[in-house]
Specification:
Layout: E1 6-9, H1 12-23, E2 30-33, H2 53-62
């Protein structure tokens, strides 16, 4: 399988291990989000792209809660 990018959302310790592994492999692009927020994944075949601002707005409005 050909993978262009890997994204990890989770806590700090597994993120550090993931980064260490990816540095020793041939992964070209790695995105780490290590603050415990839930990811929002938009696939290439998404039909309702106009809905993307909804979760972004929710994160922006609730940032003071975490």
């Amino acid at each position: 399988m050909d993978v262009d990018m890997v994204s990890f959302t989770g806590s700090t310790e597994p993120g550090r291990r993931f980064l260490s592994y990816s540095a020793g492999s041939n992964l070209k692009e790695v995105v780490l989000e290590m603050v415990g927020k839930n990811p929002c994944i938009v696939m290439n075949d998404a039909e309702n792209l106009e809905d993307i601002p909804t979760p972004v707005y929710g994160v922006q409005q609730g940032h003071h809660l975490s």
